[in-house]
């Protein structure tokens, strides 16, 4: 606590002095969007080297407080210089996309470079991946600079029910940059913290059930959880191939869409991408960033149980935002009910929890087996490592009960098959039936509590900043739809964002 207080005082002094806000060319990097950065490149106000140097210095000063980054890429400045040279000679592709833009990756996304990929655990420190993750290959092709690995709730919050959200063995407890005592939410906590705190403009997270939407909601940033399979999961430390999805976490809808455009598409190392590629619109997703995106959209409002999850400030803001959506031309279909919603939220009864345990063991063992080198090769090895190195693995005090339950499973048997059938029925009779019957474009809920409904069906969702409570703690609003409806969700989210412009920089309150 004493160290946190000292760091806070230093931070406050630096912020007041304007230390973080300018580069030598007087271009303000803080809060800059991808379009801002690209324009600054074009007008010779900024180089990729200056941009990377700014982020590295900011991480160096603030990360001891926020714990949003596990490690930075030792080659980041080399890659920045390479990007600057390519722009100087007008190399094809150097004028657009993510060229020269640094990005942080959640530490379960593999990179074949000097960075580790560990899911935040010492058990995988020093492991060697066979190749870049599929999404990383696409990011490199788009010219992005891999700046480093963001922290996360260790093992994507699938190790222990007792661990605090945002706690990582390798980097410690992540902190919310708006109110340090407020939780950052997990598991993609570091990706959201880092973007909110201007460690970087854009990041990638992953979601199995809430792990993009919840950190985005808690840290006042935009998170897109794509339709499962729209983005490759190859090279991502898994929980469930049926539910895992990789998506952007950024400060604006526009930036998130630019990153989404870069990472979607077929990857032959992930079979699900071939089926999901049918949803990708010709011309990509940026075309749906329309100022009048709310007009004519049919939006369903499901109050039970989501308003019950909300604080008084969130509930009041939500009612106000419904008026904003109406004023933007949306048709609000209120007081709807999702059939069997209580069953969906009971992960044990629904079968979601049962399936995730079995799927985790199978998919993690396959991931570990594929590594070129690794201290652990099976889930059983990871459990043994945690027991042996209890002092090193500081998260051990919270146990590994989920790991032990997963290790006790034995493949996809009759119980798991019954769970699959039940989840499909809950989805068909619940969310899908609601969407089809009322001809909805999206369902709108306060916060990120809608994630289980989207998770069990592989559906997409977007969370956008929606306000702050009286203590300054952020909250968001979620838009969810059926598979492949990202174009509609982007129109709605962008329309809402442009109509409200609620997000503000973090305050770093103690």
From TrEMBL:
Entry superkingdom: Eukaryota
Sorted UniProt keywords: Signal
InterPro entries, per database record: Amidase_dom (IPR023631), AS_sf (IPR036928)
Annotated Amidase domain residues: 51-384
Signal peptide coordinates: 1-26
SUPFAM superfamilies assigned: Amidase signature (AS) enzymes (SSF75304)
Name recorded for this polypeptide: Amidase domain-containing protein
């Amino acid at each position: 606590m004493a160290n946190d207080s000292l760091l806070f005082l230093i931070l406050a002094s630096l912020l007041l002095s304007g230390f973080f806000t300018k580069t030598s060319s007087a271009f303000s990097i803080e809060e800059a969007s991808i379009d801002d950065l690209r324009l600054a490149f074009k007008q010779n106000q900024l180089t990729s080297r200056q941009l990377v140097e700014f982020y590295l210095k900011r991480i160096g000063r603030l990360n001891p407080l926020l714990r949003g980054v596990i490690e930075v890429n030792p080659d980041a400045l080399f890659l920045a210089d390479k990007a600057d040279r390519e722009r100087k000679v007008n190399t094809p592709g150097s004028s657009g996309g993510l060229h020269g833009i640094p990005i942080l990756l959640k530490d379960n996304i593999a990179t074949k470079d000097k960075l580790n990929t560990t899911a935040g655990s010492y058990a995988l420190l020093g492991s060697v991946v066979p190749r870049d993750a599929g999404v990383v290959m696409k990011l490199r092709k788009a010219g992005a600079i891999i700046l480093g690995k963001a922290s996360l709730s260790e093992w994507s919050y699938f190790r222990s029910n007792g661990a605090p959200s945002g706690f990582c063995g390798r980097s410690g407890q992540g902190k919310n940059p708006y109110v340090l005592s407020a939780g950052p939410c997990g598991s993609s906590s570091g990706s959201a913290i880092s973007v909110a705190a201007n460690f970087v403009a854009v990041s990638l997270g992953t979601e199995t059930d809430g792990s993009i939407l919840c950190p985005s909601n808690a840290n006042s940033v935009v998170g897109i959880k794509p339709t499962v399979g729209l983005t490759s999961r190859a090279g991502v430390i898994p929980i469930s191939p049926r539910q895992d999805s990789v998506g952007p976490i950024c400060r604006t809808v526009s930036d998130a869409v630019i990153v989404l455009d870069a990472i979607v598409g077929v990857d032959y190392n992930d079979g699900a991408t071939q089926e999901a590629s049918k949803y990708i619109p010709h011309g990509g997703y940026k075309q749906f960033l329309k100022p009048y995106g709310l007009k004519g959209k049919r939006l369903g409002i499901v109050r039970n149980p989501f308003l019950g999850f909300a604080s008084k400030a969130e509930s009041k803001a939500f009612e106000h935002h419904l008026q904003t959506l109406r004023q933007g031309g949306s048709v609000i279909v209120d007081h709807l009910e999702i059939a069997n919603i209580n069953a969906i939220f009971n992960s044990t009864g629904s079968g979601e929890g049962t399936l995730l345990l079995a799927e985790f063991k199978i998919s993690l063992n396959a991931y570990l087996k594929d590594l070129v080198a690794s201290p652990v090769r099976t889930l059983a090895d990871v459990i043994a490592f945690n027991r042996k190195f209890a002092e090193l693995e500081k998260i051990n005090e919270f146990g590994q009960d989920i790991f032990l339950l997963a290790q006790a499973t034995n493949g996809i048997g009759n119980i798991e098959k019954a769970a699959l059938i039940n989840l499909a029925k809950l989805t068909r009779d619940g969310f899908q039936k609601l969407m089809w019957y009322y001809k909805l474009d999206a369902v709108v809920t306060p916060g990120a509590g809608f994630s289980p409904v989207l998770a069990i069906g592989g559906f997409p969702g977007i969370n956008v900043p929606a306000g702050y409570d009286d203590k300054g703690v952020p909250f968001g609003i979620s838009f969810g739809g059926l598979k492949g409806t990202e174009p509609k969700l982007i129109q709605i989210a962008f329309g809402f964002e442009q109509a409200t412009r609620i997000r503000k920089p973090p305050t770093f309150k103690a």
